[in-house]
From TrEMBL, chains A, B:
It comes from Streptomyces griseicoloratus. Pfam families: FCD, GntR. One of its GO terms (molecular function) is DNA binding. The keyword Transcription applies. The keyword tRNA-binding does not apply. It comes from the Bacteria. The lineage of its organism: Bacteria, Bacillati, Actinomycetota, Actinomycetes, Kitasatosporales. This is FadR family transcriptional regulator.
Length: 233, 233
DNA sequence: GGGAACAAAAAGTCAGATTTATTTGTCACA
DNA sequence: TGTGACAAATAAATCTGACTTTTTGTTCCC
C-alpha cells in the first residue's frame, strides 16, 4: 500500500510520522533538527526535507531559536491520506475508524444521490457488476472476494457523484472497509440485508432515482455505524 | 490569512503552488529542480524543500533521471487547506466553491445532529449567542458582522459534533461563507428565512433534538446549494 | 525594577562535491 | 531483424561545512 521509502527523507517519515501521530511526543514537545538527523543517521538536508513535510501536514511547527515543536492533535491535517494511514496503524485505530465511519455516513448517501443524477452508463454497469460480485461472494466465507467488490462499489459511487471531494474519499472508504474485514471481528458471512441494499442502490442509480439511492445508502451507512456501536440510545 | 512566507521555501510555494493548481503546468509537465532554483533565485536545498511539500500534497512527483512531474488533478490532496486556498485564489474558484458547498451539504446536517447529542452547555450558549449575533446583523447592510457570526455558528456546530474530521472543516466553511459575502453578489441583506433557521438550529441543539437539528441544517445547506444553482430540475 | 545592549542557540541558507538510479542508445550476437 | 547485455549520460539524491538570521534569555547599567 502507498509508497514506502521514496528516498531517505521518506524512510525517516515512515518512522517519525507514526511516532508523532501515535502521541509518542506530546504536543509542545521540542525536537531539534540536528539531533534528529543524528538519530536517523541522515544529513541535515534530508532531515530538513522531512520536517518540511511534517510541517505541511501541520503535525509540527519549526521556529528559529526554538526548534521543531509538535502541534496539538486539533491542528493536524486529518484528511491527509498519509496521516490517516499513520493513525490507522497506531494505537488509536479504533477511534480513527469511528471518525471515518461517521464521515462516511454523512458523505456516501449524498454521493449516491448525486451518482443517480450524473453516473454514466458505464458507471451504472460497473455498479451493477460490483453488486453482483458482492452477491456471489456473500456466502461461504469468501470474505476477500466480497471486500474487493464492496470497495469497488463504493469507489464507483463516490467517483460517479461528479464531486472531486467525494471522489478523493475512495481510499478512505477502502481503508475502513478493509479494516472491518481484517482487524475487527468478521468471521461470519456479511449481513444479507446489507448485500441486498447494495443491489438496490445499483438499481436506483441505474433508474436515476436519486432520492431512493440516497435513502438506501443511508441505510447501509447506518448499518456501518451500528457495527461500531455508534448510535443514539 | 494563513501564514504567508514562512521561510524562503514558503515564498517559493506561494507562487509555485498557485501556478500548479491553476493548471499553468499541464499534468505530465516536467520541471527540473535546478532550473526552478535559478528561476526563483534560491539554492537547490530550498527548492528541494518546496518540491517535497508539493510532493506530499500529491501535486507533483519527483523521480530520478526524469525530473519533477506535475500530477493530474485527480491525484491532488484536495482536502489540504493550503491546496484549497490556492485553488480558491485561482481561476476555477467557482467550481471549487461548488465542490465545497456540496461537501458542506453532506456534512453539516449530520454534524448538527451529532452536536445536539454531544454539545456542552457552553457550546449551546455559544451557539445561541452566534445566532443572536446573526439576527442583530441581519438588517441594514451589516454584512461583515453577519458573516462573523455566521462563520462562528458553523464552527461551533462542527466542533460540537465531537468528530475531529468534521471539526477540521471549520476553515473550509469559513472560506466558503467569506467567499459568498465578498466575491459573489451579496449586496442585499441575508435571507430572513436563513436567519430564522439558524436560530431554530441553536434551539434544537439546546433542546437535544438531534433529528430536528439535522433537518433544519439540511434546509440551510439546501439554500446554499440553490444560491449556486446546484439542484435537481 | 525596568530597559537596553549583548550573547548564545537553533533554524535557515548557500555552494560545491559526490553518489545513485534510471533512461536511452549502442553494439554484438543469435 | 530482433533481442540481449553493456555503457554513457543525465538529473535527482545526498552529504558536508561554512555562513546568516532570528529569537530568546541574560546581564548590566541607569
Amino acid at each position: 500500500m502507498s509508497t514506502p521509502g521514496r528516498g531517505l527523507h521518506g524512510q525517516v517519515l515512515d518512522t517519525l510520522g507514526p511516532d508523532i501521530t501515535a502521541g509518542k511526543y506530546p504536543p509542545g514537545s521540542v525536537l531539534r533538527t540536528d539531533e534528529l538527523a543524528q538519530r536517523f543517521e541522515v544529513s541535515r538536508s534530508v532531515m530538513r526535507e522531512a520536517v518540511r513535510v511534517l510541517e505541511s501536514m501541520h503535525l509540527v511547527e519549526s521556529r528559529r531559536r526554538v526548534g521543531v515543536t509538535v502541534l496539538p492533535e486539533c491542528e493536524w491535517n486529518v484528511y491527509d491520506p498519509q496521516v490517516i494511514r499513520w493513525r490507522l496503524a497506531g494505537a488509536d485505530r479504533p477511534r480513527q475508524l469511528r471518525s471515518l465511519t461517521v464521515l462516511r455516513s454523512a458523505v456516501e448517501p449524498v454521493a449516491a444521490g448525486l451518482a443517480a443524477r450524473h453516473a454514466t452508463s458505464e458507471q451504472c454497469a460497473e455498479l451493477t457488476e460490483c453488486a453482483l460480485g458482492m452477491v456471489a461472494n456473500s456466502r461461504g466465507h469468501k470474505l476477500e472476494g466480497y471486500l474487493f467488490h464492496d470497495v469497488a462499489f463504493h469507489r464507483v459511487i463516490l467517483t460517479a457523484s461528479g464531486n472531486e471531494m467525494f471522489a478523493r474519499l475512495g481510499d478512505v472508504v477502502a481503508e475502513v472497509l478493509a479494516g472491518r474485514t481484517h482487524h475487527d471481528v468478521m468471521f461470519e458471512d456479511p449481513d444479507p440485508a446489507a448485500v441486498t441494499l447494495h443491489v438496490q442502490v445499483a438499481e436506483a442509480v441505474r433508474e436515476r432515482d436519486a432520492e431512493r439511492a440516497e435513502r438506501l445508502t443511508r441505510e447501509i451507512t447506518v448499518g456501518a455505524l451500528q457495527e461500531l456501536d455508534i448510535l443514539a440510545p
